[in-house]
Description:
Distance between the termini: 42 Å
Number of strands: 0
Structural class: mainly alpha
Low-confidence stretches: none
Shape: globular
Number of helices: 11
Helix content: over 70%
Amino acid sequence: xxxxxxxxxxxxxxxxxxxxxxxxxxxxxxxxxxxxxxxxxxxxxxxxxxxxxxxxxxxxxxxxxxxxxxxxxxxxxxxxxxxxxxxxxxxxxxxxxxxxxxxxxxxxxxxxxxxxxxxxxxxxxxxxxxxxxxxxxxxxxxxxxxxxxxxxxxxxxxxxxxxxxxxxxxxxxxxxxxxxxxxxxxxxxxxxxxxxxxxxxxxxxxxxxxxxxxxxxxxxxxxxxxxxxxxxxxxxxxxxxxxxxxxxxxxxxxxxxxxxxxxxxxxxxxxxxxxxxxxxxxxxxxxxx
Length: 289
């Protein structure tokens, strides 16, 4: 009996050690990715979760406190806040993902060209420095006012704002990689510049790009919410987290729930993306190992 208990204890220790190592390595990725996946699921399944139309105005249900009928209460127009928060997640996640994807794609192309061709670097880098000289929020607000209302126009405006930072990251990586031995060998074997950039240089830039993708997505969600709060960008007829907060600002003292729930949705979403990005950084960055 004593031997069996000793064996079971010795078997539990390696398992606990392996579990601790696994959680230390992948814990933040699982936590951030799991919360983000849950938010994405409830946003997509919003018509199945709530029966209220997010834009349905009901003057008889104005400013109702949270109850079993209206889980998160209603706003000044009698619209169900729970349904508006769920549907608003669609816009925020769509804008965040599309802006991160477009900014990353544009930054990759510009960064590869700038890092590989010195003459082009002098021209394009000056343009990107001029764009980066403006505060991101001010530039996004200006572009949103120029382009007008619309989710697609907000994506374009925020992509312009986010592309320079990605391009600089890729450029710095290209400058340090293009003189390496394997690139020189490919060049000596007659490989074209395009093949060298996308076959031998770009794969070595994937790690910082993945991390930058998550930070760009989180920043885009915050900026879109700020623009919606100011009444710029997304049409007021489309429910967004920033739009819900904009209506709630007048009733923060008397009806705080109007601002608490959309604010929590923004905080939890951005925090989950940040945790996911930190986990990916620790996993992919060799300096952190």
